[in-house]
Design a protein that fits this description.
Layout (H helix, E strand, L loop, with lengths): L1 H23 L16 H12 L18 H7 L12 H6 L11 H12 L6
Amino acid sequence: MKGKLKIRLLDYLIAGALSMMIWSCTYDVNPTEPVPDIVSYSQDMQPFFDASCVQCHNGGGLSLDLSPGVSYDALTTGDYVNLAEPANSLLYTKIAPGGSMEQYSTSSETAMTLKWIEQGAENN
């Protein structure tokens, strides 16, 4: 009986240790990068669009052409940017958590987009 108790106790200790190892391991596949104090359209926003959006939003694919040279006008003349309520901007809500394009932006890029709109969505 004493031997079975030791084995059972050892089983619980091993199971507990394994559980702690499994649940304590985390890996962030999208580490948060700092958002610039002043978001530049040409230095920050367009490179984001080039890397994540232009392959589909290029004038021949999905609506809203985000190609260099035309993206700023496309965003600001459509209903994509709402300066009065930046968090309600279509551009932001599409890439924010729960949006239909959220898988194409990191949390840093989403925060940067909102900040750009809050700063007046300038073509800088």
